[in-house]
Amino acid sequence: MELKKPYLLFLGDAADALAAKVAQGIKTWRPEYCVGQFRLENCHADCGLPDMSISDAVAAGAQTLVIGVANRGGIISDEWINVLVEALEAGMDIASGLHNKLTDIPTLVACAEKQGRALFDVRYPTQVYPVANGKKRSGKRLLTVGTDCSVGKMYTSLAIEKEMRDRGMDADFRATGQTGILISGEGVSADCVVSDFISGAIETISPANSPDHWDVIEGQGSLFHASFAGVTTGLIHGSQADALVLCHEPTRQHMRGLPEYALPDIDVCMAANLATARLTNPNAQFVGVSINTSGLEEQAALSYMAELEEQLGLPVVDPFRQGVGRIVDQLVVGA
Question: What sequence ranges are listed for the domain D-glutamate N-acetyltransferase-like C-terminal (predicted)?
């Protein structure tokens, strides 16, 4: 799916800044896509964009209202409906990454049909994907993988794409989750694709390209997560990655949501990801490690990364504290 730009970010009645993290992510990584924000009276979040009415946003060129807030249960609140209808009537599409579907709300469906507008439930794919063929594709690809879920794969991927573009490299972020789709405006939510077609879906969103073009593909899950290893495997095979970046959060006591499963040893994790990646790209290799050090004091974080870098012989960085320039340097050297 591909969303029309630019966006009006809907913050609704967000209880706090964390509840509007999707909107904040879009504003951080794609500020050029955002004309403003719409907040209800009891909203306690602010992305730092101009507050706009629906009519003001349309006058400013907004083509899609993006629901950038998540409430408990991921539902579309009754208090939002009037605003969403107003947006449709004013000529905007609506996009949402919530569990609750826009297309399950009769009022919105009827209004969208009447106005000729589109409703995008980005969590749920709308096209049929082929079975993967594993054939070599032109162009270059980088995939982020993780020791666990929610360790910074999306953030790292976006940071790498930005660093590449800042250097004048030809690069595109390829989203594989709902938040990434809302940030980039296109992609596929891999965890909602039928398992037989995950690799084919990734082949579809990262097609053949020019030899010097890089697709930076957002990773999902972990090969070592008992719940989500399946989607990770399909994504790795479909990516045909030339370069892999491992993402890790060192203060985790166990796999996310699975207290009985310890985090894998980093060497073991890298070996497993390489073995999986080399089914469809025998030349796949790791080019760096991204560490989420938010749970460590700065000196402890720097010491940990320095020790790990000496152990692995690869650049080890925190993309938030230090940026990802040293990882991208590896890609330039290997070009």
Answer: 131-328
CATH architecture of 140-333: 3-Layer(aba) Sandwich (3.40)
H-helix segments, 37-148: 54-59, 81-90, 106-115
pLDDT digit string, tens, across residues 293-333: 999 999 999 999 999 999 999 999 999 999 999 999 999 87
CA atoms lying within 13 Å on the CB side of residue 194: 9
CA 303 to chain CA centroid, nearest Å: 29
Fold (topology level) of 7-121: Rossmann fold (3.40.50)
Tell me if 8 sits within 8 A of 36, measured CB to CB.
yes
Distance CA 230, CA 266 (A): 20
Domain ranges of the chain: 7-121, 140-333
**Which 3 state secondary structure label does DSSP give 279?**
coil
pLDDT average, residue stretch 60-71: 93
Give one word for 190, left, alpha or beta, with left for phi > 0 and alpha for psi -120 to 50: alpha
Residue 16 CB contacts under 8 Å (≥ 6 apart), including other chains: 44, 45
What is the chain's percent helix, strand, coil content, to nearest 5?
Answer: 40, 15, 45
Per-residue pLDDT reduced to its tens digit, 77-106: 888 999 999 999 999 999 999 988 999 999
Cβ atoms of 171 and 212 within 8 Å: the answer is: no
Asked whether residue 47 carries a pLDDT value surpassing 90, the answer given is yes
